[in-house]
Amino acid sequence: xxxxxxxxxxxxxxxxxxxxxxxxxxxxxxxxxxxxxxxxxxxxxxxxxxxxxxxxxxxxxxxxxxxxxxxxxxxxxxxxxxxxxxxxxxxxxxxxxxxxxxxxxxxxxxxxxxxxxxxxxxxxxxxxxxxxxxxxxxxxxxxxxxxxxxxxxxxxxxxxxxxxxxxxxxxxxxxxxxxxxxxxxxxxxxxxxxxxxxxxxxxxxxxxxxxxxxxxxxxxxxxxxxxxxxxxxxxxxxxxxxxxxxxxxxxxxxxxxxxxxxxxxxxxxxxxxxx
Length: 275
Hints:
By secondary structure, the protein is of the alpha+beta class. The protein has two domains: 11-55 and 72-102; 110-247, Cupredoxins -  blue copper proteins (Immunoglobulin-like), CATH 2.60.40.420. Helix content is 34%, strand content 22%. It has seven helices and ten strands. A hairpin with a 4-residue loop joins β6 (173-177) and β7. The radius of gyration is 26 Å and the shape is elongated.
């Protein structure tokens, strides 16, 4: 199996999953492949036993009747207990991986409040006190060039712990960058959080993964992971463009009262109250 995989391309080696670009995504891709290898081993064993039984105990003549067994206690115990242990092991390792994916550090390098809206995204850089206001993607149906330039683009530094604070302005959306191999819903009146550690520079496509209305398919964005110097220059560029402050709950379709505002994590300090 290792020899066969070594001769395959990277896409096959990671089980046709998108190329992972975060620490957790690498763990997910590895676990995905390991589970498939385990499933293949169990499948080959099962198919082998079935084929062996078919040929070893086939009727050899019209007068031949194979030995009949009402039950076989050791085998029945084995094929009851062994699958229980297999399922328990898969369940336990899956929960451990999910806990690692949802682990939240107290002091992330970057905190971004992502606000989903029909049908685009607002990005608040919380600590830097600047923002990006997204508009719906243009050129999807009329064949015009320049679609990537119309997408809201979230710029992040490489080799950094990034916290996403997810909120929604109207209906349920879902924040998904396929190459993160992780996504999370955005629910009105609720705050969901996850963190990633970026490992690769590049431009990665993002989208909404929750059917949210007529133009759900056009709710796209980009993530650019760059060096720290390029990230700092991007933040200064936003300041120079006058995009200072935060885009707050007053832009929500159904604004909440102060006592209804979702509680944001300590990493956001008092800025949510200022919004």
